[in-house]
Design goal:
The structure is a homodimer of 375-residue chains.
Chain A (H helix, E strand, L loop, with lengths): L11 E2 L9 H7 L9 H18 L6 E4 L3 H12 L5 E6 L2 H13 L2 E6 L8 H10 L5 E5 L1 E2 L4 E2 L2 H10 L3 E5 L18 E3 L13 E5 L1 H8 L12 H8 L13 H17 L1 H23 L14 E5 L6 H12 L1 E2 L1 E2 L8 E5 L7 H14 L4
Helix pairs in contact in A: 1-9, 2-9, 3-4, 5-6, 9-10, 10-12
Chain lengths: 375, 375
């Protein structure tokens, strides 16, 4: 018999995500599978909704999780909010905002691009200018924490500008949710999506989303039907609302949901504000030790950085890829490479969720010292 | 602290799916998470591809798994194969084929419907007639095992008719894969999708798919770009091909993939032909015991039945919903209700994957006897 079960290495995941999953979360995944119509499972879905409202800081009932990864969430938000022909302003300074452009083009939207330098926060004045020049724009889309560059934009301010110009807002909070302040209602983010495997310290494959009342109204009044069935918010709302009377949509990945539920409970137990603080404090420690002990620096100016995902300049003469391979093979430690314009120029170091603690910082600094031969 | 971890009941899942997951599969889900770019994980993806080729009986390299449930697979196959304006013939005699119609309409395809009575296999002559009347049709779509009615169509014959009329074929093998013969290459099925939680005895949330060379050629020569980014086969092929050089697409749900890999290995160890035989034999036993001991009969005529998913007539005067509730609450046993036209008229009883064995038949018959008061 050739049966060879898969036994993954126990990696330390300090790249852009997945980050290491809390063992309590992993433990729930193997529990007995429930049918998606089981009353107990429907109760679980209701609890997940309520925990996500806490996590997103929203009162909107249109808050739930999509049964696919964050990039499905990106497509779902855009395909619901945008009709073919709609003018959409997209602020981009990285790989993931560029993906928004690709998706909107596939939907048939008319894209106006606000370009920012990779590694910098979006300059709000540039959005203001674009909206002054495009008074017929309907939607503004941007990324909070640009995973490809380590830059954090002030999306509260970007959202204010968008609303002043009567636009609705689509915001990517994939790398921010659970790790840094995300205030969906206060910041008037009309459609937001995230992922499960970063700040939430859960396994990958789920995309929490939330839609404002204005977004729901906008979607209900579309002239052209939503092109996607799987992502159609009207159908999804029937599935996620109405308690025991909910409408069948798809077969939910029940064991994945056990994990998300546990991860969200753990976050609530810690209290999300404490989680935000923990991420900031550990990040500050990591940045200062990177500088002092390894002479490594973030490419993003202070004040524009994602605290928990650092894009670090590869020093002159160092073989970027070899360092990553050595960290992985000799120290069982995964960090990320650069994407797009930054390929070969940076490493991406994540200190997220379960991994945001001093032990991980120590481990990372010590491994990196050995690999860079700085002992 | 209000933390209350979720502890699911240990249900016996004999509805239309999910079916019970093999404990060996459940066990893999809790293993350490790997990054989606880890060389070990990329090796796992290659093994999954190869195991899926075995399961689908295909040599096509465009065989992989989507990171979402079977209904995402349905949308993915259709959105790649169909351009706005294309004429598509859809054979429908149930809820899931009707969903195909909804999706194709959202894509902008022109739907020609071949209607069959719910609970019957698609009559091949009806497809022949429709294609004679619609010589400009490009794609024919049908469901192999219609989960909503228990009817099994002869898709080998339907596919022959479609190809004779120069159409490509999209086939839903959600409820058939792993449980009954599915011969993708031999039957010339150009785009097929399935799910993980039925015949494969894995958890829900993944959709195995396969595309023929003709399908790939067709998709490469589209005039209108694929409307979906997440489901764009060109991008997905970059992610699933090329070994260590693969292109980033989304963050794969690694722990889910561990489960699928294990489930596929178990199926290969048994040998798929043996799994097909097991499902047929156990189904025959269940049908004869339902008749003899409970006087219950399938609505689908013999010869057109899905062996492992029976739609059973609710006897006159019996409260359909109460029986399901009693089975669940008193015997921890889940069966399915009717959908659409058959709501209230049938029960759906699955004997799939890990559950296709005599012990489950005994348990079911005994519980049903008690609930129907036939002891």
């Amino acid at each position: 018999m050739s049966h060879k079960s898969f036994n993954p290495h126990h990696r330390i995941l300090m790249g852009p995500g997945p980050s290491n999953v809390n063992p309590k979360v992993l433990d729930t995944l193997s529990r007995a599978t429930l049918g998606h119509l089981d009353p107990q499972f429907i109760g679980l879905m209701d609890e997940i909704k309520s925990l996500l409202k806490y996590t997103f800081k929203t009162e909107s009932d249109a808050t739930f999780v999509l049964s696919g990864p964050g990039s499905l969430g990106m497509e779902a938000c855009l395909v619901n909010m945008i009709e073919p022909g709609d003018k959409v302003v997209i602020c981009t300074g990285g790989y993931f905002a560029n993906r928004m452009i690709q998706i909107v083009e596939k939907i048939g939207g008319q894209v106006v691009t606000v370009k920012e330098t990779w590694g910098r926060a979006i300059e709000p004045q540039k959005l203001e200018d674009a909206l002054n020049a495009n008074t017929d724009a309907k939607v503004v889309a941007f990324v909070h924490a640009e995973t490809s560059t380590g830059a954090l934009s002030n999306i509260k301010q970007l959202s204010e500008i968008a609303h002043k110009h009567n636009c609705l807002v689509v915001a990517d909070v994939v790398t921010s949710l659970g790790a840094i302040d995300v205030m969906v209602d206060e910041w008037k983010l009309d459609a937001v999506y995230s992922c499960s495997q970063k700040g939430l310290a859960c396994v990958a494959g789920m995309s929490p989303v939330s839609f404002s009342e204005q977004a729901l109204h906008h979607i209900k009044n579309r002239k052209i039907p939503i092109q996607s069935w799987f992502n159609d918010l009207n159908l999804l709302m029937g599935y996620w609302s109405g308690g025991q009377k909910r409408m069948y949509h798809h077969t939910a990945p029940s064991n994945q949901f056990y994990g998300l539920h546990e991860a969200l409970l753990i976050l609530k137990d810690e209290e999300i504000e404490n989680a935000w603080r923990r991420h900031k404090e550990n990040s500050a420690k990591l940045i200062s030790r990177l500088k002092e002990e390894l002479d490594l620096e973030p490419i993003v100016p202070s004040g524009e950085r994602i605290p928990h995902l650092l894009a670090i300049k590869v020093p002159y003469g160092v073989d970027e890829a070899k360092v990553r391979v050595d960290l992985l093979t000799k120290h069982n430690l995964e960090i990320g490479a650069g994407l797009g314009e930054l390929a070969g120029k940076i490493w991406r170091i994540g200190l997220m969720g379960y991994n945001s603690n001093e032990k991980m910082i120590d481990y990372f600094i010590s491994a990196m010292k050995k690999v860079l031969d700085k002992n």
